[in-house]
TrEMBL record:
<dbReference type="InterPro" id="IPR008030">
    <property type="entry name" value="NmrA-like"/>
</dbReference>
<protein>
    <recommendedName>
        <fullName>NmrA-like domain-containing protein</fullName>
    </recommendedName>
</protein>
<dbReference type="InterPro" id="IPR051604">
    <property type="entry name" value="Ergot_Alk_Oxidoreductase"/>
</dbReference>
<dbReference type="InterPro" id="IPR036291">
    <property type="entry name" value="NAD(P)-bd_dom_sf"/>
</dbReference>
<dbReference type="Pfam" id="PF05368">
    <property type="entry name" value="NmrA"/>
</dbReference>
<feature type="domain" description="NmrA-like">
    <location>
        <begin position="5"/>
        <end position="193"/>
    </location>
</feature>
Length: 357
């Protein structure tokens, strides 16, 4: 029996790329939708993916992308109009009569959250519940990548920047999140109507993570509590867009309030994949093997100079970004742990893994 073609959006990002690679590793036919034919897209083509260049906000692109597709993975873009892209995708999926759609949501998703992306991902969840096609929601919390994206500072200077104090999280790796998504895509009958929150196997603070990073790098690493204004400058130096950071600063506050420790350990990775989730230390070892973690005189000097010039580098005016983008915050915004409706819905999700209202 021939395998249906699977469409993967966001295929040059954290989870989309991992989903495409895992599907091709299992010999499934994959079409990826990317915004530009850059080096990352060429890597996917070399893996055997059919590459389509286009914009999730373009209805004609979505119709073309869905042609001949049987199943699809939706990654809503970081954009103040992300719900428009999600709606276009879901409408095209229904018109194409897809048998299965897996959507990337967010653990924090709630109606009156200060972050525009979190509010719009809550709206997407409501849309998913009303669809006739088979739908699976994957709603991870704070990724391991969020802590490890600055591993070069740990490798070169012995400091791991932290924004979250002593609050706890069991961060899932990109690969485990992707494995849950792939499991739902290749066995839709089993996973339709389900909602999963992949987590790691252990709740850790960034102090505990620093110890794991130190072991992975085989050197001393000290946690450095970084103020948000300094992190925003460092993130801009790394090319992180304002749209992503707009919500990230709010997720950090949710983190400090305990939102990621709330029902913070699930069995969803093992439930879907049949194996335990990857430990943070194992994820850190993979990051420690990256080129940016290789220590030379030049790399250590470069990291030191970057660290020293970060305070005087330009940052983002995120309030102005949101104002210019037409983002309007709710009159009575509240973070996840202040929202009893969110807490009740996430308790059910963690316990039952069912996409319910």
């Amino acid at each position: 029996m021939s395998r249906p073609l699977i469409l993967v959006t966001g295929a040059t990002g954290k989870t989309g790329g991992a989903v495409a690679r895992q599907l091709r590793g299992l010999d499934w036919p994959v079409r990826v939708l990317v915004r530009s034919a850059d080096a990352r897209a060429r890597v996917l083509a070399d893996l055997g993916c059919e590459v389509q260049v286009g914009d999730l906000f373009d209805p004609a692109v979505m119709q073309t992308a869905m042609r001949g597709v049987g199943r699809a993975y939706l990654v809503p873009p970081f954009d103040p109009r992300m719900i428009e892209a999600a709606d276009l995708f879901l409408r095209a999926a229904q018109e194409a009569r897809l048998e299965s759609t897996v959507a990337l949501g967010q653990w924090l998703a709630c109606e009156r959250h200060p972050a525009f992306e979190t509010r719009q991902l809550w709206q997407m969840e409501q849309r998913l519940r009303g669809l006739s096609l088979g739908v699976t929601l994957v709603a991870p919390g704070f990724f391991a990548d969020n802590y490890l994206r600055l591993i070069n500072f740990a490798a070169q200077l012995g400091v791991l920047p932290s924004l979250t104090g002593n609050s706890l999280n069991a961060p899932p790796s990109n690969e485990d999140i992707a494995a849950v998504i792939v499991g739902a895509l290749i066995d839709p009958d089993r996973h339709a109507g389900r909602a999963y929150r992949p987590t790691g196997p252990q709740l850790l603070s960034t102090a505990g993570m620093a110890k794991e990073v130190a072991t992975a790098l085989d050197r001393g690493v000290m946690r450095f509590e970084m103020p948000m204004w300094l992190f925003l400058k460092a993130a801009r130096m790394q090319g992180v867009p304002a749209a992503e950071l707009s919500g990230f600063r709010h997720r950090v506050r949710d983190h400090k309030q305990g939102a990621f420790a709330f029902h913070g350990l699930t069995d969803h990775v093992e439930r879907v994949t049949g194996r335990p989730p990857e430990a943070f230390g194992a994820t850190a070892r993979r990051y420690a093997a990256l080129p940016e973690a290789r220590v030379t005189f030049a790399s250590r000097t470069g990291a030191f100079l970057d660290f020293m010039r970060t305070p005087i580098a330009p940052g983002y005016d995120l309030a102005r970004f949101e104002r210019d983008a037409g983002v309007v915050a709710p009159a009575k915004a509240r973070y996840a742990m202040q929202d009893p409706v969110w807490k009740a819905s996430r308790e059910r999700l963690a316990r039952d893994a069912v996409l319910t209202a």
